[in-house]
Amino acid sequence: MTTSTSDPGRNAELIRKRAAELGFDACRFASAAEPWPASARLAQFVEQGRHGEMAWMAETEDRRTHPTAMWSGARSAIMLGVNYGPDHDPLEILAQRDRGAISVYAQGDDYHELIKGRLKQLAGWIVSRFGGELKVFVDTAPLMEKPLAERSGLGWQGKHTNLVSREFGSWLFLGSILTELDLPADPPSGGSCGQCRACLDICPTGAFPAPYQLDARRCISYLTIELKDPIPREFRPLLGNRIYGCDDCLAVCPWNKFAAASREQRLHARDTLRSPALRDLAALDDPAFRALFSKSPVKRIGRDRFLRNVLYAIGNSADADLAPVAEIHLQDPSPLVRGAAVWALSRLLAPAAFTQLRAQTSEADPDVVAEWSG
Ligand code: B12
Ligand code: SF4
Ligand code: SF4
């Protein structure tokens, strides 16, 4: 049952203050009940197959279309932001071809754990103070967080489709609380992309069919993190040394000029993950992978998918000294890894040497024959 409060405006201010005390960098309010255009846009995205193999997007589409479709009791949304601004230029590492580029969001601890903990603390405080049922979300639930954040005035969805904040640029994680309480909605943020198209132009894989629309199947974030299979050949050269996610469209956004480095120590880049050598990463077995990526979001994709990405980056390194590193992986237990090793060697070895290796090896490994034949 909805708990009525005498002064919703005052309650909102108290919630905002408590959110700041808990370490949230932004907190704003929106109606969770009004209809919006995002439902139709999600339907179009799924219909066009732009979610690729993220089957969960289609499976949960009905609930995902609107907050009330997931929970009919939702009246207001409390939208929280955590600044994860980097202390360095994330594009610089792209020129260091013998190093792996891990996207900014994954160079520190897993933000899901950090934000979920804070959301639960805030939620407990709200219930004890004002009552009302509520639910907390960060990333993984069937809730469209960006349009909800835009509605709350936290920012606007930029042409790269992510939320842009006047204060934090493109570096803001989102978390949400849906509640039965009626809280006064905040005004829109103001600010827009205007004539800018920097994010559209820099995308290495041409993942934007139009401004404000993304085809996830072409996005390096999807290809390196979500896709379990070998990455389609057409994209492999375009990955460069990006081995987990991609920041290009975020990093070029001019609104980042107002951003500051994150104040949360746990989100800062670990020294080991700023510019790890591809040679060292390729040597990781499962226990070493788990140890290096303890508490990191990278752990989620597992050692084999990660090694696949590392070997594609080795193939793109133009560093023939790395060929023996790739060759060791022709014996890897994982066919995914063996296939990526073949591709890397096809790029690093002289044609005659590759042909000779193929004659010796390809028939002995039926799982990756397609990779040998190119
Ligand atoms: C699925 C998903 C992905 C997929 C698909 C991304 C996408 N853009 O849809 C992949 C794996 C590719 C991905 C990548 C990334 N992700 Co992601 N991802 C999500 C997730 C789980 C759902 C997003 C979704 O609903 N997509 C479906 C599409 C249809 O919705 P949409 O993007 O809002 O699309 C809108 C526009 O297309 C717009 N639109 C369409 N046509 C038009 C026309 C006009 C005129 C206008 C104005 C708008 C418009 O309307 C749609 C609905 O609002 C959210 C968390 C969540 N639960 O919301 C995180 C989330 C969006 N991801 C996040 C992050 C950080 C990333 C990466 C930066 C990670 C990285 N460094 O590699 C990249 C960024 C890539 C990019 N440019 O989007 C953050 C973004 C934070 C922010 N400030 O916006 C989120 C919110 C997670 C979080 N809780 O912080 N992600
Ligand atoms: S994250 Fe990278 S690949 Fe994906 S849309 Fe942005 S620039 Fe393109
Ligand atoms: S780079 Fe330019 S077009 Fe892209 S989101 Fe930022 S302001 Fe908008």
TrEMBL record:
Residue positions binding [4Fe-4S] cluster 1: C193, C196, C199, C253
Reaction it catalyzes: epoxyqueuosine(34) in tRNA + AH2 = queuosine(34) in tRNA + A + H2O
Note describing how the cofactor binds: Binds 2 [4Fe-4S] clusters per monomer.
A Pfam cross-reference name: QueG_DUF1730
Presence of the UniProt keyword Lipid metabolism in the record: no
Keyword Ubl conjugation: no
Residues that coordinate or bind tRNA: K228
Cofactor(s) required for function per UniProt: [4Fe-4S] cluster; cob(II)alamin
Protein keywords: 4Fe-4S, Cobalamin, Cobalt, Cytoplasm, Iron, Iron-sulfur, Metal-binding, Oxidoreductase, Queuosine biosynthesis, tRNA processing
Protein residues bound to [4Fe-4S] cluster 2: C203, C219, C246, C249
InterPro entries tied to this protein: 4Fe4S_Fe-S-bd, 4Fe4S_Fe_S_CS, ARM-like, ARM-type_fold, QueG, QueG_DUF1730
Active site (UniProt): D139 (proton donor)
Pathway it works in: tRNA modification; tRNA-queuosine biosynthesis
Predominant place of localization: cytoplasm
EC number from the UniProt entry: 1.17.99.6
Subunit: Monomer.
Family the entry assigns: Belongs to the QueG family.
Annotated function: Catalyzes the conversion of epoxyqueuosine (oQ) to queuosine (Q), which is a hypermodified base found in the wobble positions of tRNA(Asp), tRNA(Asn), tRNA(His) and tRNA(Tyr).
Protein name: Epoxyqueuosine reductase
